[in-house]
Amino acid sequence: MNYFKKIIFIFLFLLTFSFLNGAEYLVTNANEVANAMNSAQPGDTLTMVNGEWQSQVIEFYGDGQEGSPILLRAQTPGKVKLTGFSRLKISGTWLVADGLLFTDGYPSTGAVVEFRGGSHAHYCRLTNTAIDGYSPENDNDEFKWVSIYG
Question: Would you state the pLDDT for residue 16?
Fold first, then answer.
């Protein structure tokens, strides 16, 4: 009988653990990020597919929770290359963007990364991300790599 109880305990533990991990969404462009965020819940992960993301305005808007943020991450850190006029806008609470590379371009307006969209960003983070070779050609143009509000 003890063997049966152990099996049930392990099954319930694994079932509970799978619910705590959250859902994972595989996304290939800014529209898919926005669509996934319409249903994303605290603890969910949006994984950006490796490759070049040409002139994408990524709107990472949502609400995670303390200890259970919503994560937007590169499939492989540094292998999601945001080029052209790409930008990242973060707005909401407990959001984390991780592992992105902005290169070979610059945004036509605003900052490369902006912690503000429809509302301010609270308890949001940008980690393990590089902005390299991502500036306008004219040094007199007003330009920001990261703007923080909130």
Answer: 42
